[in-house]
Amino acid sequence: MIRNIRQRQKDAALIVASHRLSAVLNTDLVYFLNISGELVIDRSEELLKKNKEFFNLFAGQRKR
Fold first, then answer.
1. Per-residue buried b or exposed e for 39-63, using 16+ beta carbons within 10 Å of the residue's own CB
2. Three-state DSSP class for 2?
3. What DSSP assignment string belongs to 3-62?
4. Contacts of 54 (CB under 8 A, 6+ apart)
5. What is the reported pTM?
């Protein structure tokens, strides 16, 4: 769905709020508000590698 929107609206900024890993993986940047209230900004792949809290949020959704 996000990919389709991006193809049609190439010059638009798209803000997505989601708890679905598939939606988060297709973004340029992720703004993640952790349990301490700290805003962490990075690419989804990097957050999955470096941030245990972000990783755990999507633990049940990863492909095995």
1. ebebebeebbeebeebeebbeeeee
2. helix
3. HHHHHH-TTS------S-HHHHHTSS-EEEE-TTS-EEEE-HHHHHHH-HHHHHHTGGGS
4. 30, 32, 34, 40, 47, 48
5. 0.73
Per-residue pLDDT of the chain (64 residues; tens, 9 = 90+): 667 777 787 777 878 888 888 888 878 899 999 999 999 999 999 999 999 999 998 887 866 5
Cβ atoms within 10 Å of 34's Cβ, excluding its own:
13
What are the sequence ranges of the domains in the chain?
2-61
How far apart (Å, rounded) are the C-alpha atoms in residues 53 and 47? 9
